[in-house]
Amino acid sequence: MGRKKKNLCQESRKGGKLAIDIDSDADIQECTSASAQSGSKSLNHLLEQLYEKKGSTRESALSSIIQRSSLGYQYQFCEKNFAELLYQCLKSFKRGSSKESCLAVEALGLLAINIGCGENSRELYKESVPVLSEALKTESQSKKLKLILDCLAIVTFVGGNELDETERSMQSIWDFMHSRTDSKESQSAAVFSWSFLLSTMDSWSISYKHWQGAIPFFKNLLEADHESTLIGAKQALALILELGCHEKFEGDTSATEEINVKNIFKDGRVPEISVKVGKQILKVDTLPQQIQLNFLKRLLGSGFVVHMKENELLHDVFKFKPEKRQSGREVYVAERDEAAIKLFVPDVRREDSYQRIHKSQNSIFVKARTQIRNKNRDIKGEEQWCSED
């Protein structure tokens, strides 16, 4: 994630607050319960099942991996088994049934989120983006197209470090938007994915030649009778206006004069979004980050809060520092000291001095031993008191 994904534009104007509480104890329990219900099978066993010849077995394994990867942060498993997960998912996507192919592309997107930035995410980008971009040209199933668009966007977001890499994925989505207007669901998904990637870019880095005509295109979508498409078009136009480089999106005729933020947001202000994450509040008040927040929440579902607490990728994107929990035993830990005493004993006859040195109540050995025993007795009492609390 070498390109900018944080301070993506000038500070937005703050408006009303939209509070989203998705982290109650009931939510956590529900996530934990759902994760447990994914079966007693370990993730390693599920990985082994991706090699099975029976398609239904692979489908079941992919479904469980998706559930576990969305409801919980699975970095260690994904890091350790990255190559196998990547190539088995690509194999299932290209050769499996329609159901298996859909599950595989969804698993690839979650793999990107769990693995985070680094060499593995670069490999994921290089291996999967050409396959996904080609699939956009040939696939006809609306549900699968939506999953491909989501996957292409998130894989590029995490693994596409260079500007031209982001632009290539955006271009594939852009071409799809203009050529596949027959499916409203797919077109709206394309609009959201395109805006998601645009939200990672600075105005100065956007090319003059790639997105000419974007403003009139999205303006026409404002008259669509499909709600999701309408919302996506408003979001895209608002982001373009936020970036401020209208000339890069206008086309042959200027349509910017007819559009302003008041037509898109109530009172012309971007509402602040607050998300409860445990005892903390994540506040997002810039449009680019709100677009990223909504996109990631949709991909992770009820597991978003768990990832927000544990996933370093999300911490970096939203500049979020989770609180570190301390258990009762960690609040107070008794320390056990060991003392060594060196005593010079003159060369005297043992039978005459042994009783005086080792047995006498005034002996230094007896006093030291008594002190250590008393201290150990106090420490043991303190440890028992902590455990009872």
TrEMBL record:
Domain Interferon-related developmental regulator N-terminal: 30-258
Pfam families referenced in this protein's UniProt entry, alphabetically: IFRD, IFRD_C
Interferon-related developmental regulator C-terminal domain boundaries: 311-378
Phylogenetic placement of the source organism: Eukaryota, Viridiplantae, Streptophyta, Embryophyta, Tracheophyta
Protein name: Armadillo-like helical protein
Organism: Helianthus annuus
Signal peptide: none
Family per similarity comment: Belongs to the IFRD family.
InterPro entries for the chain: ARM-like, ARM-type_fold, IFRD, Interferon-rel_develop_reg_C, Interferon-rel_develop_reg_N
